[in-house]
Design goal:
With 190 residues, the chain is an all-alpha fold. It is built from twelve helices and no strands. The radius of gyration is 18 Å and the shape is elongated.
C-alpha cells in the first residue's frame, strides 16, 4: 500500500463509518465493480473517490471525469488524492482539464492542486496556463498568494524561458520574490 493510498483510506475510513462497503471497495481487484460505483445513483462521495482513485492509479480512463471533479473540490485532501491519481492515469485530456481549472478566475481559491499538477505533467499546456494564472494573481490586493507561489515554483521546475517576463514581474512581491529569483535562476539563458 503506497503512502497516497494509505492517506486516502485513513481519511475516508471515518467518513465511511467503517462500513462493509468501504472495506470491499478497498479490497476488490474487480475494475468493473469499481467502475460501476462511479455511475450508480446515490453512492456517497467517499465511495466514488475510492473507486476513482483506484481506477485512476491503475490506468483505467473511466475514472477521468470523477478525478477532475475531485481535483476541483473544496476539500484540499480530496484534491491531493485526485491529482496523484490523474498523474498516474496518464490520460491525454488531463493537461487541458488541469489548465482549465488553474486558469478559471472564479475558482482561484481551489486552483492550488491543478497548478501543481500542471507543473508535474510538463505538458504543452503547462507553461501558458501557469503564466496566465500567475499574471492574473499579481493584481493588487489579490489574496491567493499560495496559488501564485505554486505557479512560480512550477514555472521554475519547468525551466521554460517563456516564463521569464512574468517571473521578473514577481520579483518585487514580498511573499513571492525569493521564489521568483530561484525560478529565474533555473531558466535557460536567452
Amino acid at each position: 500500500m503506497d503512502e497516497e493510498f494509505r492517506s486516502l483510506t485513513d481519511r475516508l475510513g471515518d467518513e465511511a463509518g467503517g462500513s462493509e462497503d468501504f472495506r470491499r471497495l478497498l479490497a476488490t481487484e474487480d475494475a468493473e465493480e469499481l467502475a460501476l460505483v462511479l455511475v450508480e445513483r446515490e453512492r456517497p462521495l467517499w465511495a466514488r473517490e475510492i473507486a476513482a482513485f483506484r481506477l485512476g492509479c491503475g490506468g483505467d480512463r473511466r475514472a477521468f471525469e470523477t478525478l477532475v471533479l475531485l481535483l476541483n473540490h473544496r476539500d484540499p485532501e480530496r484534491c491531493v488524492s485526485a491529482a496523484h491519481a490523474l498523474l498516474l492515469l496518464g490520460d491525454p485530456r488531463t493537461p487541458r482539464a488541469a489548465a482549465a481549472l488553474a486558469t478559471n478566475s472564479l475558482r482561484t481559491g481551489y486552483a492550488l492542486h491543478p497548478v501543481r499538477l500542471l507543473a508535474a505533467l510538463r505538458a504543452p499546456e503547462s507553461v501558458p496556463a501557469l503564466v496566465s494564472t500567475l499574471h492574473r494573481l499579481l493584481a493588487p490586493g489579490e489574496p491567493h498568494w499560495r496559488v501564485a507561489l505554486a505557479c512560480v515554483e512550477g514555472l521554475g521546475s519547468l525551466e521554460d524561458s517563456r516564463a521569464r517576463p512574468v517571473l521578473e514581474a514577481v520579483l518585487p512581491h514580498p511573499r513571492l520574490g525569493a521564489a521568483a529569483e530561484e525560478a529565474l535562476r533555473r531558466l535557460p539563458e536567452g
